[in-house]
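Aldo/keto reductase
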Amino acid sequence: MNFGTSGGVAACDETEAARIVDAFLDAGGNIVDTADAYTGGESEQIVGRAVKGRRDQVVLATKAFLPQGPGPNDRGLSRVHLTRALEASLRRLGTDYIDLYQCHQWDDSTPIEETMATLDGFVRSGKVRYLGCSNFSAAQIVESQWAAQRTNATPFISLQPQYSLLARSIEAEILPACRKHGLGTLVWSPLGGGVLTGRYRRGAAPDAGSRMGRLKASALPMARAWADGLLNEPNLDIAGHVVETAAELGTTPAAVALAWVRHRPGVTSVIVGPRTLDQLHGNLAGLATDLPAETIEHLDEISRPAGAAIVNGMNTSPVAGPGRLGVAGEGR
């Protein structure tokens, strides 16, 4: 999401992006996820060039839904838009197939049967190998899988949901739906937009160069609202506990937050969005961190939504965590 300099919230130029991808693959990583809407398509172009020569090592994933122009067929999950979007993504990525093609959001204006039949055609043509979705509710997952079954089409195999100590709403219904219907999960924003790194403090304005500082200074109301939704009192309380836990364990707050997410029931993979090579190394170290059982229990407790019960290790509350967000997007 950060790759490119065409209006990204946290721009990363192509040279640094290539270093990040190379280091990630050298460390044993294999999934590189982007979307046609990231930095105006520049992200896909950079990713395509970065994996050239190592294409067979990469599970290349991208997404479609968000506007690509002003017209009524320039967005959504209709046959017209998805067909155009796939061809454009293939060109930008410089490849003749995409390993995981994902619906970025649900489309209320298109019958799900049309979407699933269109995606199935992509698989049958060899241009796409597997299908996934992002930011779908439990009901939308079920509707999609049933539609694929009814039309003898290819079903989804994965979901990209938001998940962190600050946003645990998927535990109530979405993770159980994924298990029931055979979807792996690639969770995004495990660091809560950077809040769980301990960079932000109560009563102090975020640094101008930080992610939250850039969001708060943005001309886009949605960006400012995103920052305000993250930097609230409950979230900062949780972040404070993470900082204290990291100090006790002799590690970083980011490592604690990533380790907690990685070990949660139902989580298949964790998406990180480094803007620099140093951030990547910190993320990789965090993903290799193991937490003591008592630490996990403590983090579970301090981040549990009010009124939530726990059944088989999963939160049954239908609401998001203390810092619940209503904005869809990849605030890695």
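thats it. The domain at 14-315 is CATH 3.20.20.100 (TIM Barrel). The first strand starts at residue 31 and ends at 33. bye
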